[in-house]
Amino acid sequence: MSQDEDPEFGLRVHDLSLRDCRAGGVLHGVQFSDVSVHNLASGGRISPFGCVFRHVTLSGRIPQLMVRDAHSALPPKVQEAFRDGAERFYAAVDWALDVTAAKFSDAELSGIPGHLVRRDPETQFVLHRDRAEAAAPQGFSARARSYLAKARTSPYPTIVVVAPTRSKYFKDMLKDLESLRAAGIAE
């Protein structure tokens, strides 16, 4: 599902519950509301670009999920329109995405304001853009520096970064995120 002409997110998926299913591919410009997904399989990465979420719960086994802003191949004015539309949408949202019970193989949630994500604070960290901008990258691992870069370039004041529990790099990723928490950059 994809559309890049309506930054008010008229393409909607709502009131849906999926359990033990398979999906994949790229999504763009879709509004997801009141959706629950438990145990999702995919042959590859699921990439919602420029999508917005209200009351979406992911639980169980979840494949690679990369939630990002509008696709970078779109003209800058279209990207900006989707960012503005998302900002208006999220102004009226109490919570966007609940991933507290999600077991990811990989995840990036930079396309959602971090304060609107319900999360497991043991493995899912909120990074603050202003703290990331003020942080000196020396002393952090290359991976932790990449997390700082994502927070610095986010259109939102906070993002959520996940240490995916189903990844073979889970312990290393968790250690890197905990180093950011110890420095006061993440919580």
Question: In brief, what are we looking at here?
Answer:
Helices cover 25% and strands 36% of the residues.
Based on the model shown, name its key terms.
187 residues; alpha/beta; 5-stranded parallel sheet; 4-stranded mixed sheet; 4 helices; 25% helix
Helix content: 10-25%
Strand proportion, as a percent range, falls in: 35-45%
Mean pLDDT: 95
Lateral strand order in the biggest sheet:
1-3-5-7-9
Could you outline the blueprint of secondary structure elements for this entry?
Layout (H helix, E strand, L loop, with lengths): L10 E12 L2 E4 L1 E12 L4 E4 L2 E11 L2 E2 L9 H15 L6 E8 L2 E3 L7 E2 L5 E5 H6 L7 H12 L4 E5 L7 H13 L5
Parallel strand pairs: 1-3, 2-4, 3-5, 5-7, 6-8, 7-9
Antiparallel strand pairs: 8-11, 10-11
Can you walk through the features of this model?
The protein is α/β, with parallel strands linked by helices and 187 residues long. The protein is 25% helix and 36% strand. The protein has helices at residues 76-90, 129-134, 142-153, 170-182; strands at 11-22, 25-28, 30-41, 46-49, 52-62, 65-66, 97-104, 107-109, 117-118, 124-128, 158-162. The strands form three sheets. It has a five-stranded parallel β-sheet with strand order 1-3-5-7-9. The protein has a four-stranded mixed β-sheet with strand order 6-8-11-10. The longest helix has 15 residues, at 76-90. The protein is globular, with a radius of gyration of 16 Å. The protein starts with 10 loop residues before the first strand and ends in a 5-residue tail after the last helix.
